[in-house]
């Protein structure tokens, strides 16, 4: 028995719907779908196609905004905290200056929103003597 494949990809599905609506409109009033079904189908196609195009525009805009955000933060691949003109650069600069001014009480950095972990650090395991 033959299989009739209906694509899951939105672009391909919309194209198939366009072809089907076009064929049904050509055959009308002798098409397979009733006039009401054909109208509903055509309206769903318009809704889906419009939303699909808007989704593509928003996706592209979201990608552009993500790049802009990451560049401003300094979190783009290849950037480091040493990259002047980024949020990470200025934030780590502020952290370092505050730590230098508050060596005996680093908890003060919490007033700037920093999370300060003062739990004792584990000592690195030293390998046994040979």
Task: Describe what this molecule looks like in 3D.
There is one protein chain. By secondary structure, this protein is mainly α. The chain is built from three helices and no strands. It has helices at 10-27, 35-73, 87-101. Helix 1 (10-27) packs antiparallel against helix 2 (35-73). The longest helix has 39 residues, at 35-73. It starts with 9 loop residues before the first helix and ends in a 29-residue tail after the last helix.
Topology of helices and strands:
Blueprint: H1 10-27, H2 35-73, H3 87-101
Summary of the model, kept short:
The protein is an all-alpha fold and 130 residues long.
| Oligomeric state of this protein | single chain
Describe the main β-sheet briefly: none
The tally of helices reads: 3
Provide the structure class: mainly alpha
Shape by Cα distribution: elongated
Cα gyration radius (Å):
30 Å
How far apart are the termini?
74 Å
The overall average pLDDT, rounded, is 93
Helix content estimate: 55-70%
Number of strands: 0
> What are the segments in which pLDDT stays under 50 over at least 5 consecutive residues?
none
Question: How are helices and strands ordered from N to C?
Answer: HHH
State which percent range the strand residues make up. under 5%
